Amino acid sequence: MLQLEEKGIDAGMKCVKYMLFVANFMFVLVGFLLISIGSTIKGVYGGFDAFLTDQHFSASNLSIAIGFIIFIVALFGCIGALKESVCFINMYALMLFLILVLELSVSIVAYSMRGDLEVTLRKTMLETMEYYPTHTYHTWRVVQYNLECCGVDGPSDWYPYGQLFSLDYKVQDNKTYYVPSSCCTNLYCSDGFLYIDGCLPVIRFVVSECAVLLGVGAMCISFIQLLGVIFAYLLAKSVRKLKTQREVAKTQRKTQLYEELAKSAAQNEKMGPVLFTPTSSEA
Questions:
Q1: 170 — alpha (psi -120 to 50), left (phi > 0) or beta?
Q2: Residues of the signal sequence (predicted)?
């Protein structure tokens, strides 16, 4: 009866173990996905990093860090499953839970950025215009040329710096502007060929969508992490139960052996000593 129960527990543990291996493989893919998403978003932000604060990069940096941590934790879980070590598996479950908390924090940070995003971006973009010739020339040139926009809310944002920075004087729709050459739609920067739309709406949209991608991605991955915690708990429980059953079986076998030895000794005592009587030939 005990052997049958051991076989059943052993089969259940193998099933959970294989499920944990599958979950670990999924975690490796998830880790790679987090690193890819974080790196891609950092690359997108790199085009206008002068307009962003450290807070805007915190979610993507945390996503990359979690991805690398997941690789290590998945390896730890595989070792624990192979060794059937309760300590390893419990540590694995604990680390998965901590990663789950980190992923939820990524979602919170990502969504919190969207609250005052427009106000923050407008403030930083207007501030960077003051340092256009020295520190932010390349950023503004790339942003305005690639996004086909001009200024924060429009080309008029450059007007106060026109003579200070020797910007191009242009006329469009009976309005005068001082703008950098990157605000022009053609190579010669002729009058009437200016980008009228500001860069703020486009940048705000890009940053906002990236934040949504990070937040939703981290939230979905958190559910997968939760499955891993459950698998690890079930495996640890199965290992503990199987080891307990094995110890009980050993104890019962030892007890049974001792009882048989004691019974055999008692029977020998009842039979008494064996007397040796010599035969006539031996005498």
A1: beta
A2: none
Token pair listed for 133: 């010739």
pLDDT number for residue 150: 92
Residue 114 and residue 152 share a domain: no
Alpha carbon distance 74, 93 (integer Å):
10
Residues 45 and 210: beta-carbon distance below 8 Å? yes
Domain count, the chain: 2
Answer yes or no: is 270 within a domain: no
Is 94 in the same domain as 148?
Answer: no
**Burial class of residue 238 (count of CB atoms within 10 Å of its CB; 0-12, 13-18, 19+):** buried
Both 232 and 216 in a single domain? yes
Supply the DSSP symbol for 167.
Answer: P
For the whole prediction, is pTM greater than 0.85?
Answer: no
Which of left, alpha, beta for 148 (phi over 0: left; psi -120 to 50: alpha)? Answer: left
Burial letters for 161-187: b for 16+ Cβ neighbours within 10 Å, e otherwise? bbeebebbebebeeeebbbbebbbeee
Residue 66: domain span: 2-118+203-244
pLDDT of residue 201: 93
Q: Which two tokens stand for residue 266?
A: 């008692």
Cα 57 to Cα 184: distance, rounded to the nearest angstrom = 31
The span from the CA of 12 to the CA of 82, in Å, is: 15
The answer on pLDDT for 202 being more than 60 is yes
Count CB atoms within 10 A of the CB of residue 40: 13
Q: Which residues pair with 78 in a beta bridge?
A: none
Closest CA to 235 of 69, 97, 80: 80
- Do 110 and 130 lie in one domain? The reply is no
Q: Which residues of 240-258 are buried (b: 16+ CB within 10 A; e: fewer)?
A: eebeebeeeeeeeeeeeee
